[in-house]
Amino acid sequence: MTILTFWEARRLDAVTWEVTGVLPQRAGSLPVRVTVDRVDLKQCAVIGTDGDTYLLEYSPDGISALALVQADLAEIRAVQS
């Protein structure tokens, strides 16, 4: 599985997170935008609302950002329940 590089997470609205990044390919690269459903910190990955898993280039700051996204999504779901 190819890893998204140069990625960033951002909150689109009160309940939606998005990750944007670049998917390297043989001839160039492809910009990718994923609406986040879940976070997998062990794999440094997000699971999109499309059900696909997107591996992200590892960095300590990136893991910290994903942990914040994961906590925020958990809080949103707790409030919605």
Structure description:
The longest helix has 21 residues, at about 60-80. Strand 4 and strand 5 form a beta hairpin. The model has no long low-confidence stretch (mean pLDDT about 95). The termini are far apart. The protein has a five-stranded mixed beta barrel with strand order 1-2-3-4-5. The protein has about 80 residues and is of the alpha+beta class. It is globular, with a radius of gyration of 13 Å. The chain has one helix and five strands.
Topology:
Elements: E1 3-11, E2 17-25, E3 28-40, E4 45-48, E5 53-56, H1 60-80
Parallel strand pairs: 1-5
Antiparallel strand pairs: 1-2, 2-3, 3-4, 4-5
What attributes does this structure have?
81 residues; alpha+beta; five-stranded mixed beta barrel; 1 helix; 26% helix; globular
Please state the CA-atom Rg, rounded to the nearest Å: 13 Å
> What average pLDDT do the residues reach?
95
Strand content: over 45%
Identify low-pLDDT runs: none
> Share of helix among residues?
25-40%
Report the strand count.
5
The computed structural class is: alpha+beta
Principal-axis shape equals globular
Measured between the Cα atoms of the first and last residue, the distance is: 34 Å
Q: Number of helical runs?
A: 1
User: Major sheet: size, sense and barrel closure?
Assistant: 5 strands, mixed, barrel
Biggest sheet, spatial arrangement of strands: 1-2-3-4-5
Q: Summarize the helix and strand pattern as letters.
A: EEEEEH
